[in-house]
């Protein structure tokens, strides 16, 4: 997956917004102000995605490209290498899972705004 495809896939989710809250290189995707994906736009070597803790451990065991979240809560975030051989369909599934986890934790009133 190239950065353009990553960008458009993330922006297609309801309520998704892009932001650069840390520096001019770290692109963060948020829904209702909560992060669900981030990546370095210059290098695009990896992406950070939120993940269910049990599934995170399973993914890390199954794929060397999936590691504990770099500079993130390692229980809830994975760093996914974009330099490996992960299929785009799996990467898209992981991005969607991250988005859905964040949306599920939003207050009902905010979730309803996304429909």
Automatic annotation (TrEMBL):
Keyword annotations from UniProtKB, A to Z: DNA-binding
Molecular functions (GO terms): DNA binding
Annotated Gene3D superfamilies: 3.90.1150.30
Record bears the keyword DNA-binding: yes
PANTHER family reported for this sequence: CYTOPLASMIC PROTEIN (PTHR35145:SF1), CYTOPLASMIC PROTEIN-RELATED (PTHR35145)
Protein name, entry field: Predicted DNA-binding protein, MmcQ/YjbR family
Organism: Gracilimonas mengyeensis
């Amino acid at each position: 997956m190239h950065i353009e495809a990553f960008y458009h896939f993330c922006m297609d989710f309801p309520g998704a917004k892009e932001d650069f809250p840390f520096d001019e290189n770290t692109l963060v995707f948020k829904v209702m102000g909560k992060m669900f994906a981030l990546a370095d736009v210059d290098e695009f070597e990896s992406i950070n995605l939120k993940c269910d803790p049990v599934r995170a451990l399973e993914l890390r065991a199954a794929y060397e490209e999936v590691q504990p979240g770099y500079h993130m809560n390692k229980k809830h975030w994975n760093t996914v290498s974009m330099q490996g051989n992960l299929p785009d369909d799996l990467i898209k599934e992981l991005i969607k899972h991250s988005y859905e986890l964040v949306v599920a934790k939003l207050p009902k009133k905010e979730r309803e705004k996304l429909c």
